[in-house]
Amino acid sequence: MESENDIKTTPRGFHCVLCNVNLPNQPSVDQHVKGRKHQTLSNVRTTRKTQEEHSVFVSGIKPDTSQTDLAEYFQQFGPVSDVIMDKDKGVFAIVQFSETESIQAALSCVGHQMKGLSLRVKPREKKDFKYIPKKKNDLENLQQLLDCLKPKLCQLPTVNAQMQFVVERFQLGENEKKSRGLLVLLLQEVFVEFFPDSQILPFGSSVNTFGIHSCDLDLFLDLENTKVFQARAKCPSEQATEAMSDDSRSEDSILSDIDLSTASPAKVLDLVAAILRRCVPSVHKVHVVSSARLPVVKFHHRELNLQGDITINNRLAVKNTRFLQLCSGTEDRLRPLVYTIRYWAKQKQLAGNPNGPGPLLNNYALTLLVIFFLQNCEPPVLPTVDQLKDLACEEEECVIEGWNCTFPSQSIAVPRSGNTQDLCSLLAAFFSFYAKFDFASSVISLREGRALPITDLLCHNGKIEEATDDQKPSKPNQSGPKLGPLNVLDPFELSHNVAGNLNERSQRCFQKECQEAEKYCRSLQYLRKSTKGKSWGLVRLFTPHGVTQTKPEELTISIPFKSDVLPEALRSQLRMAGDGFRLLWFEKVCTSVERVFQNILRCHLASSMDFALAEVSAADLSAEMETSTTSLNTSANDSLESVEFTENAAATGIKRRLSSGSDASVSPQGKKPRISKRGKCEPPHWLWVQKHLVWAGRRKVRRELIKETDSRPEGSCMEIESQVTAHIIQKEPELKNPLEFKVQPQLVGGTESTKVVLRLEPCCDKAGVFQDFFHFLDAFLPKMVETLLEKEVGLA
Ligand code: UTP
Questions:
Q1: Which of 82, 244, 673, 753 could form an SS bridge with 681, CB 3.0 to 4.6 Å?
Q2: Residue boundaries of the structural domains of the chain
Q3: In this predicted structure, what is the pLDDT of residue 604?
Q4: Backbone phi and psi for residue 428, each to the nearest 5 degrees, phi listed first
Q5: Which whole number is the average pLDDT over 104-128?
Q6: What is the pLDDT of residue 460?
Q7: How far is the CA of 167 from the centre of ligand 1 (A)?
Q8: Residue 713: what pLDDT?
Q9: What 8-state DSSP symbol labels residue 396?
Q10: Residues 6+ apart with CB under 8 A from 367
Q11: Ligand 1 centroid to 367 CA: how many Å?
């Protein structure tokens, strides 16, 4: 049995070669081979082997070559059971026969000619099946695709030409558009039989002018007229009865089985799925995803190798697709920019969520980021959505679900931009714009074409208070957008953050990649074609990161501003502080940091540069922030632009407590901020002493403590962590030479995402333990500070 060969004995137990996992003993081997991963991989291996034995590799095809073309051509050698095209279509295909003899027939034929194409037919390579973890696989695919593009891109004379080439290479071909159109017509004919007067409308990348070869087909099944039809049929007035008697459609429809006005979306979608399965040829893999934000029926069209999605509550998407079409029609530079940025984001694994819902940007959000950038160029390349509304005529007025969706239907109605920047410089400017963007404290509004302060949206329960009358949703209690590390309001549905799925890591990666790209775009390698045939321009920009590319960071720990996890009371205070909210938040973070070091990790405060200062009003804070934003400084070896809190506090004469929670007995008495020769304060800092390895073995101690108490009571995180420290201090010997280290907090924001950066520096580390402690703090401190802020434990 193959499964038996998969398990090898090792000095430490066993190893499963198929799944690449170590197993300690026989019972775990038995369990493993019955488990899902092993079973799935075994099945995949068997299927692959069968496919390999029945198929040939075909190259020399074109992007518009269809599976049907290939199936028809290869039928002459024997029955064809499947044709698999490569993901991006147009490079190769695998043709699978029902009988192995057909392979020999196909291989022995010389000069395969199909519809004017010379096909190359090769036997399949016999490879041992090997499980490759997804990530590596993705990286290899990305690199392979770029390798195909590279020669052509490098040959072109300018970055502008390279960007135009990216559009040509990826955009949907005329044949693809036609075949999608035909499928829409077919679906329309089928659905109207079952849902009289219904309409099937494509939206998204198939029609928004940003589609690529492999993009899916998003469809909205509009049942509004069907509901009217059904209502009329249910309580027929005389007139309606007349109409009905002429109309035999009600007999064919399935409306007698379902009441559309009351049925749940899931129920309607079940019907849609049943229709697709039974009545649409070539459609397979039909399933309903009712857990999505908008429930959807997914299907695959075999002949067109096309993934389709049907929704029934998505009228706004049809409208925002028209908006994207309008933007493309108005501004020719938009498509090359969007295609290039989408491809860049895919290569850097910032967008796309290849396995369904995920924390990366979706393509719609990324496109909106490009449009927002263009609204903010000087002069603007694209108008704001509010400006578009004013350009529309009366017939174009449109409100959907209470959201104003008015804009001109024709791009001719929109004045051309006075901005003459070329594509190459706009692309570089896009990266600079987002490299310096303060994502944490802003909400991107395409409606207004500006970044709104996040504090505007930190109101009760996150509900929008300030939407103008024509933007207010008709539905009462419509909740506000889900705020997160990156906030992009939908241009129409103002309560929807289209980037609400991003986590902190994906936001940080996006900004970091923009910073890297900004730097690269300043180099000659970006701007000038290499005379030695080396990679230049977009090629280097598109190169995916290898696994080892992350640079070792300096000893800093970042605590990002996360509006969504703050308690209501603190959100209100921040909102009241207006522009000065960053300083108020900074103060709370500093208090929490001090608590973590002092109360939880039991560090001793050797000294602190004490700012011990009085309470500050919201008005003071806002005045202070105004001063601080004007005195942003950039240090020579650090591209971070940061607000030096103390300098500004000194400059404005505002006094503040940094170490509000510090214990007077350990805090140096009566320390005043030191004034340097230039009359400025030294940056604030704490000098801590730690005598124990309080970070070593914490997880184990924590586990044991929780087991002892048998549960983890709510709000006890701080107590448990303090107990863990106390336990370690009690049980483990003291360090011979205590560790002394400095922690210096700094508030950053305005020109990048708002956060507190803590710089750590060992002052005395004879035991050589600082690195370990730092790695522990890097994960522990931000989480702990977040917990303290969430609960506002003693921060008021
Ligand atoms: P996608 O993010 O899939 O974009 O959203 P896309 O342009 O179709 O790109 P592919 O399919 O990944 O290649 C599809 C459509 O769904 C609507 C928009 O109309 C978008 O064009 N949509 C998406 C929203 O209305 N809101 C969202 O938050 C996301």
A1: 673
A2: 2-123, 191-313, 362-526, 555-667+674-795
A3: 94
A4: -60, -40
A5: 88
A6: 45
A7: 18
A8: 52
A9: G
A10: 208, 210, 324, 338, 342
A11: 9
Q: Which mutation among 296, 363, 502 tests ligand 1's pocket best, with the greatest number of atoms within 8 A of CB?
A: 363
- For residue 203, the ligand 1 atom closest to its alpha carbon is 19
What's the pLDDT score for residue 622? 41
Q: Give the single-character DSSP code of 263.
A: S
Give 386-441 pLDDT, tens digit per residue: 999 999 999 999 999 999 999 999 999 999 999 999 999 999 999 999 999 999 99
CB–CB of 764/687 below 8 Å? no
Q: What is the mean pLDDT of residues 305-310?
A: 95
- Determine whether the shortest distance from the Cβ of 363 to ligand 1 is under 6 A: yes
Whether ligand 1 lies within 6 angstroms of the CB of 658 is answered as no
The answer, yes or no, to whether residue 132 has pLDDT greater than 80, is no
The ligand 1 atom nearest the CA atom of 321: 19
Give the Å distance between the CA of 313 and the centre of ligand 1.
Answer: 14
Q: Please write the tens of the pLDDT for every residue from 533-544.
A: 889 999 999 998
Q: Ligand 1: does its nearest atom lie under 6 Å from the Cβ of 208?
A: yes
Going by C-alpha positions, the residue among 313, 320, 275 that lies closest to residue 296 is 313
Tell me whether the omega of the peptide bond preceding residue 359 falls within 30 degrees of 0, making it cis: no
- State which H helix or E strand residue 561 sits in: none
pLDDT at 3: 64
Buried b (16+ CB within 10 A) or exposed e, 596-618: bbbbbbbbebbebbbbbeeebeb
- Please report which confidence band the pLDDT of residue 91 belongs to, taking 50, 70 and 90 as the band edges: confident
Tell me the CATH number of domain 191-313, given options 3.40.50.150, 3.30.70.260, 3.30.460.10, 3.40.50.300: 3.30.460.10
The CA-CA-CA angle for residues 514, 358, 284, to 5°, reads: 125
Beta strands in 621-732 (DSSP E): 633-634, 641-642, 686-690
Q: Do residues 511 and 436 touch, judged by C-beta distance below 8 A?
A: no
Closest ligand 1 atom number to CA of residue 352: 12
Q: Is the CB of 215 under 6 A from ligand 1?
A: yes
Predicted confidence at residue 527, as pLDDT, reads 93
- pTM of this prediction? 0.68
Higher pLDDT, 549 or 273: 273
Instruction: List all residues 6 or more positions away from 677 whose beta carbon is below 8 Å from its beta carbon.
Output: none
d(CA 227, CA 233): 10
Atom of ligand 1 lying closest to residue 214 CA: 13
User: Residue 498: CB within 6 Å of ligand 1?
Assistant: yes
Q: Regarding predicted confidence, which is higher, 528 or 478? A: 528
Residues 567-590 have a mean pLDDT of: 90
Q: Which fold has domain 362-526?
A: Poly(a)-polymerase, middle domain (1.10.1410)
pLDDT per residue as tens digits for the range 54-67: 999 998 888 778 88
Q: Look at residue 1 in the predicted model and tell me its pLDDT.
A: 55
The residues, any chain, with a CB within 8 Å of residue 635's CB and separated by 6 or more, are none
Identify the burial level of 83 via C-beta atoms within 10 angstroms of its C-beta, where 0-12 means exposed, 13-18 middle and 19 or more buried.
Answer: buried
| Cβ atoms of residues 370 and 386 within 8 Å | no
> How far apart are the CA of 362 and the centre of ligand 1, in A?
7
pLDDT of residue 19: 87
Neighbours of 50 (CB within 10 A): 11
- Asked whether the beta carbons of 743 and 588 are under 8 A apart, the reply is no
Distance CA 591, CA 82 (A): 65
Question: How many percent of the chain have pLDDT more than 90?
Answer: 52
